[in-house]
Amino acid sequence: MIENAKCIIDARNIVKIYQNGSEKLKVLDDVSMQILEGDFIVILGPSGSGKSTLMNLLGCLDLPTSGQYYLDGLDVLKAKDNQLAEIRNQKIGFVFQKFNLLPRLTAIQNVMLPLLYRGAKEEEAKESAKEKLKLLGLGERLNHRPNELSGGQQQRVAIARAIVGNPHLVLADEPTGNLDSKSSKDAMEIFKELNRQGNTIVIITHDIEVAEQVKKVIYIRDGRIYDKN
């Protein structure tokens, strides 16, 4: 954590209810948390605990039913759709369990995408993507497509894509879930190094071994935060 760090995530009394016909399903129930700039946090919970729903809300992919959510000082619930799209593109880097790489694009093309969506020039985007991929040990795999890469290498491409725009916040949903033990360890070392460089990292997982590698864990069960350390 950075000394005198500002609050990046300020969630207060968040409730998320899904309507299923005449039934209401409360997935998140009175969730509150603060995450500061430079934090490296794991949100740990079993399947069905609401942790992926929480990630979607923290990443502005969905909105809560009630409560308050401030991201880097912005009142998310009052933001317009175009503001939320801009936040997702410029302030948040997403890493997903299934990588979500476009199969027809090469590694470097996949990593360039967020910058191109911002309106960056192609050559600038290409140089930035190459720099991040080299940083993650994929300098020899720039022109390989996802099906030509191992699971661990695909995850590295996904991480490079998440950080290529230097976002305030990196959100990772089960980033080791599809990896073998060595690749999982390598991915965690990458996240640790990114955090040492000042990135704010939030990992959502059910894996206790992942949680044991960070200083702060937020536990979620049945849609409620039930313990913090």
From TrEMBL:
CDD domains found in the cross-reference section: ABC_MJ0796_LolCDE_FtsE
Q: Which SUPFAM superfamilies does this entry report, sorted A to Z?
A: P-loop containing nucleoside triphosphate hydrolases
What Pfam families does the entry give?
ABC_tran
Q: Ranges for the ABC transporter domain?
A: 9-229
The record's Gene3D superfamilies line, in alphabetical order, gives: P-loop containing nucleotide triphosphate hydrolases (3.40.50.300)
GO CC terms on record? Answer: membrane protein complex; plasma membrane
Q: Which GO terms describe its molecular function?
A: ATP binding; ATP hydrolysis activity; transmembrane transporter activity
Transmembrane segment boundaries? none
Q: What keywords does the record list, in alphabetical order?
A: ATP-binding, Nucleotide-binding, Transport
Name the PANTHER family on file.
ABC TRANSPORTER ABCH.1 (PTHR24220:SF86), IMPORT ATP-BINDING PROTEIN (PTHR24220)
* Name of the protein described by the UniProt record: Putative ABC transport system ATP-binding protein
